[in-house]
Amino acid sequence: MACVHRWTNRCLGEDARKKIEDSVRGAHEAFTFLCKDRTFQKEFLSHA
């Protein structure tokens, strides 16, 4: 997700950047949860 953030900041105007951010907000929140929730990680890795 960081690459999308860097790209939008570097390459897009404010309006386009806002549209992209609105479009990926749900994915960003989901990945944040998946990457930071220790209980989820432990349970997920127990099946790997």
UniProtKB/TrEMBL annotation:
Q: Which protein, by its recorded name, is this?
A: Uncharacterized protein
Source organism per entry reads: Allacma fusca
